[in-house]
Design brief:
Blueprint: E1 2-7, H1 15-25, E2 29-33, H2 44-48, E3 53-57, E4 65-69, E5 74-78, E6 91-96, E7 99-105, H3 115-134, E8 141-146, H4 159-162, H5 170-181, E9 185-186, H6 187-191, E10 200-201, E11 213-214, E12 217-221, H7 223-226, E13 229-234, E14 253-257
Parallel strand pairs: 1-2, 7-8
Antiparallel strand pairs: 1-14, 2-4, 3-4, 5-6, 6-7, 8-12, 9-12, 10-11, 13-14
Helix pairs in contact: 3-5
The chain binds one DNA strand through loops.
Length: 260
DNA sequence: ATGCCCGGACGTTCCGGA
């Protein structure tokens, strides 16, 4: 089972790229973030024609997540359902081929100390509560997406520049660590213990040209699944613009599991 | 100290992104 996570920065702006990439790689499960559209504007027909069922949680202009899968999605959940009044579409979950798939677009966090920063930290707290109450680390589960946190300085090209930002500041890293401590393994880090691997580069200079990257997209797995992860990677080629085709600011990341 | 580059929108500049 090949699982992909990709923040596409607008599914409509990335329409051709996403279709071509899916056609070329044929992953079993694809978790998309930042659709930036409501469900009615999602390209169901084109993606379905490649064989995928689409589980979409959309939102106008901002956010929006989706899980694409060859197998039928079961037990679909949109949002934490924790009683918090939160209109932002940042989480969707489904069970596919016996694996619980959880797709996240964690809030950016804005400036440290801002309202958005508080929202990000509380969102992480809600995630941990949801995992504790609704999921089991002894069962096969994938938790993936855009976490908007570089877990350690190994995941940052210029740690000094990014230290006091929402992507790297200690309270955020501690919040992410509490999620991981619930019972998760970082599939990429397991297979690539060294630094210098990133999944996001700002459009603005120095960006990709200057390799000012962060590894803020991750595919985590619980132990019974992580021990079956045979390889993981980042498709940095897809971060490159091509003639007439602009890239997302995030590269797709993937993990391959020996599962069925 | 800020913008740089993008995408989206009751657009003609703004907001949000990370």
């Amino acid at each position: 089972m090949k699982v992909v996570s990709w923040n596409v920065n607008s599914i409509r702006a990335r329409y051709d790229r996403v279709l071509n990439w899916l056609d070329a790689h044929e992953p079993d499960v694809v978790c998309l973030q930042e659709l930036k559209c409501v469900e009615a504007d999602f390209p169901f027909d084109a993606i379905s024609s490649l064989g995928y069922a689409c589980t979409v949680y959309g939102q106008k202009t901002y956010n929006g997540v989706a899980i694409l899968s060859f197998d039928e999605p079961k037990d679909v959940v949109r949002g934490f359902g924790d009683g918090v009044d939160d209109p932002q579409a940042r989480m969707v979950a489904a069970t596919i081929d016996g694996v619980r798939i959880v797709d996240l677009y964690v809030p950016n966090g804005g400036k440290l100390g801002s309202e958005k920063w508080s929202y990000k930290l509380s969102w992480y707290d809600r995630l941990v509560r949801w995992l504790d109450q609704r999921c089991d680390p002894a069962q096969p589960l994938v938790l993936c997406g855009d976490f908007n946190i570089a877990p350690t300085d190994l995941d940052v090209d210029r740690p000094d520049k990014w230290r006091d930002t929402a992507m790297c500041a200690l309270p955020g890293r501690e919040a992410l660590a509490r999620v991981v401590d619930w019972g998760l393994v970082d599939t990429f880090r397991t297979h690539h213990p060294g630094g210098g691997h990133y999944s996001w580069w700002d459009y603005r200079p120095p960006g990709l040209r200057g390799n000012d990257g962060l590894r803020i997209d991750q595919i985590y797995a619980t132990a019974p699944l992580a021990e079956r992860c045979v390889e993981a990677g980042i498709d940095i080629e897809e971060r490159q613009d091509r003639p007439g085709s602009k890239a997302s600011d995030h590269a797709p990341i993937w993990a391959d599991f020996n599962w069925d």
